[in-house]
Amino acid sequence: MLSIFWLCLGLICYVYIGYPILITALASVRQRRIDAAPIHPTVSLIVCAYNEEDIIGRKIENSLSLNYPAHLLEVIVVNDGSTDRTSSIISKYTDKPDITIVHSPVREGKAAAMNRAAALAKGEILIFSDARAIYRADSLKLLVRNFNDPEVGCVNGNRRLHKNRSPIFGSEKSYWGYEAYIKTKETQCGSTVSVSGAMLAIRASIFEPIPTNMILDDACLAMQTLRKGFRVIYDPAALCFQSSAMSTRDEVLRRQRITAGRFQMLLDARALWPWNDKLAIFELVSHKVMRLFLPFFSAGVFLSSAGLMFLPDTPEIVIALFWAQIAFGFLAVIGWISEKFGWKVGLLGIWYYIASGNFASFRGLVRYSKGRQTVLWDKARRTE
Length: 384
Fold this sequence. Notes:
Strands 3-2-1-4-7-6-8-5 form an eight-stranded mixed β-sheet. The model has no long low-confidence stretch (mean pLDDT 88). It has helices at residues 2-29, 56-64, 86-91, 110-120, 139-144, 169-189, 217-227, 248-267, 269-272, 278-292, 294-308, 316-340, 348-369, and strands spanning 43-49, 73-80, 99-104, 125-130, 134-135, 152-161, 199-203, 231-242. Strand 1 (43-49), helix 2 (56-64) and strand 2 form a beta-alpha-beta unit. The termini are far apart. It is α/β, with parallel strands linked by helices. The longest helix is centred in the N-terminal third of the chain and has 28 residues, at 2-29.
């Protein structure tokens, strides 16, 4: 039982602390530079929308006002079977020569929408964007400069959160900062394996249609790029802005979908993973796969330490960590109660956010195993 305790504890520590330290050390000894330079290829900015009536007008105006040569930029908006006012709002832009509107009467999912847009796109660089991601004016120039390097095939921009009154703003901001640090170090080593669909650029020459049953379309594009021998990089200077989820419950919905998508990619790893890139495989296992099993590692630590409490000569560190887990659970419950009643969560939100993340991972596994997680999902509500 003691060996189970140490094994599970070691795996948790590796995921949260050990891997970031290790990738930082690797980045310091084997930095691969990016030959970035100002270039102006033709760009197709693709926005896929489903029931985005509250933001789609602002997103289109933002896309049309970006600081990039107008004759080199086309904007493609795909309306994926929206049932709200999205269709009528988008229709107001049909007479603009620099924007293409694609209507689909039936919702087929983001991957199918991306494929439809890519088939029409004329740009050398395809940039896929979430409807709720508002780009800073210089973001396209900063993204495409990286494609001056012939080894770069895919570039992910920096997703930042608007400061708002969401009870999980602080926790979500901390999480994204943690992720950004890891992606930066992975990029310095060669490539990152973690990308966000909010701002994702790829060479049109290497784009392949995404399987329409793919839950994580952005991750699929990253794997596609790596399999072809190109780098996937993260550029923190290319900024877009989004709002926080309205609540931890909304964040759980998003993260359980991501978990289901990761299990999908794990089970089809033979076809999807870049097996020719050993560093990328190491990053995938350490950064993505092991996180899927954190709920089980956590359960292993708690159950084994609880069992050891009944045995004589239990190591003091086991006793201390058992009570630390009890305290963690207590703080997470207080965080949940605080959010539920609209109290200021503060630091308590971090413990609740971590606990809910593990819960979301478990739910994602259950949903995927039962076939309940498809490419069509309920979006997380976000503050404005």
